[in-house]
Amino acid sequence: MSDRPRPKPFFYFVVTLVICGLLAYGFRDTLFPTSSQTGPAMITQDELKDTKGIEAADANVPTTVKEYKFLPSDKLPPITQTSAYEPMVNRTVKFALNVWAGWAPIILQNEGGLAGKQWTTPSGEPFQVELVLIDNPVSMRDAYASGKVHIGWATLDMVPLFMDEFRKDERIMPRIYQQVDFSNGGDGIVIRRSAARDPRNPTVTDLRGKKVVLAQNSPSEYFLLNALVNGGVQPAEVDFIYTEDAFQAAAAFNSDKSIAGCVSWAPDIYNLSEIESNHLLVSTVTANKLIADVWFARADFARDHPDICEGLVRGIFEGMEAMKTEEGRRKAASLMAGLYSIPESETYAMLGDAHSTNYAENRDFFMNQNNPANFERTWNTAYLLYRKMNRITQQVPFDQVMDFSIIQKLANEEPYRSSRNEYQVNFAPRTVRSIQAEGSEILTKVVTLHFFPNSWDLRRTVTVIENGKEVVRPYEPNVDIVLEEVGKLAAQYGAASIVVEGHGDGSMKGQVSPQLVKDLSSNRAAAVKTELLNKFPDFNPNQFSTVGMGWDRPFDPDDPNNHAKNRRVEIKVIALESPE
């Protein structure tokens, strides 16, 4: 033992430096505090190699595989039966609509509700339009099915509710040619503060086990179902109370204090939220791409008069352009007042409740498969939600009703070719802390993305033994399905800030620095944001903020050591400003 050479002084110097460095790293937050960061803290794979690992090995590999394949139909089904609608008189199309700001462009273009203004087909043939006011969606459906009107109105989410009846007769199957608007403040959910766990900051989860009043078979129902499911509340956990229309829902909420929530329309949602004991949980100012208004022609009418259908599309786009001037808006408000029997001051105020979707926005809605708020995704989401309510049976594929032939035809014509998407929200870079301090949280969506221990690679593969053979498979097989869910949510709440929270497990508590785990969870959040922006390149990156929570908040407080579930991300939807 005495013959072994002793270390030189330089060796002790190096060891001392290493120990000091490790101590400084472990206490760096105390020694060198940092301000709130605009981006996630990052940890590198090299740093992981220099430790025992931040999370313990986990042999519990997810094995569920779900695949999604999309094969669109080549064309809409042909109509073979004789037409069954009432013939046009003096080539006058009967176009149903309801009391809604989004119809302002067609009311302006038609110079009111009565037939008289000459519209033209692409070949120059004249026709006229009579606007038939039918507020009740069921009454509208029946008038459409019987042929008393040739054109029906709906929000796209409502149409699946009609399809069980429509598909019985191919002549009345809808042909949806055009989106007229997105609701932009006209719909909202109001909650009593007394019903919330935190009366200052109510969220969607506060509606669990409570009464909510709304109009059935209306956009209100879709709005509520969407918010509940995204917030982790099942429809069966809410007591739905139905009224004939949204205005009656607001009146019932105001008079019956046992009702915790109300889904209604403007101006009632704003009048109710002005009461101190109420809170406007969310409106379509924030959920600005959730409710899309469309019009549709009977299939037999579309077959017989494709030129008139194209003339309607072109004319409505012209009306949208005219609405961009103050003169056009004032005239539209005056015409709406006459048709709706509402004071002109109110119809003018209504105009802000809807955003007219121009040609570029229609093209994006109908034809852009990468648009997370497009026709296909809205249609499929509506079916998903209404199946939960046992309100529909067999799903009709979206491409059996969507007809983008006219939108596609206009692509190379002016002014359509030069049209640009005008419905963009500007997001300034902000810290998560400022977003949470200044904004109003609406809901939290917990998405299950299993991460391999010590990894933030969403595409990580593992080798498993199946039937005696080694097989390479994704550690998390549902990445694309989950990204699709998050993308739809972010698009529907297009004016909200989306906070992506990364989480880690506590399997190495007491052995590694908590800050290292936070850094790892930050990387996981950043990885999800990166994948979302790759999948949906039209998203504004500043809409998304990321933060690492480390092991501070386990998925299930009653089972804090379920490490696979703890390695996850959560999505918080936060209004840019408090809606009050």
Walk me through this protein's architecture:
With 580 residues, the chain is α+β, with helices and mostly antiparallel strands. 34% of the residues lie in helices and 18% in strands. It contains 20 helices and 18 strands. A hairpin with a 5-residue loop joins strand 2 (119-120) and strand 3 (126-133). Helix 12 crosses helix 13 (344-350). The chain starts with 8 loop residues before the first helix and ends in a 5-residue tail after the last strand.
List the helices and strands and how they pair.
Blueprint: H1 9-26, H2 28-31, H3 45-49, E1 92-97, H4 104-109, E2 119-120, E3 126-133, H5 137-146, E4 151-155, H6 159-166, E5 174-183, E6 187-192, E7 211-215, H7 219-230, E8 239-243, H8 246-255, E9 261-265, H9 268-273, E10 278-283, E11 292-298, H10 299-304, H11 306-322, H12 326-340, H13 344-350, E12 354-356, H14 359-367, H15 375-388, H16 405-409, H17 432-438, E13 440-447, E14 461-466, E15 469-474, H18 479-492, E16 496-502, H19 514-535, E17 544-548, H20 563-566, E18 569-575
Parallel strand pairs: 1-3, 7-8, 7-9, 16-17
Antiparallel strand pairs: 2-3, 4-11, 5-11, 5-12, 6-9, 6-10, 13-18, 14-15, 16-18
Helix pairs in contact: 7-15, 12-13, 18-19
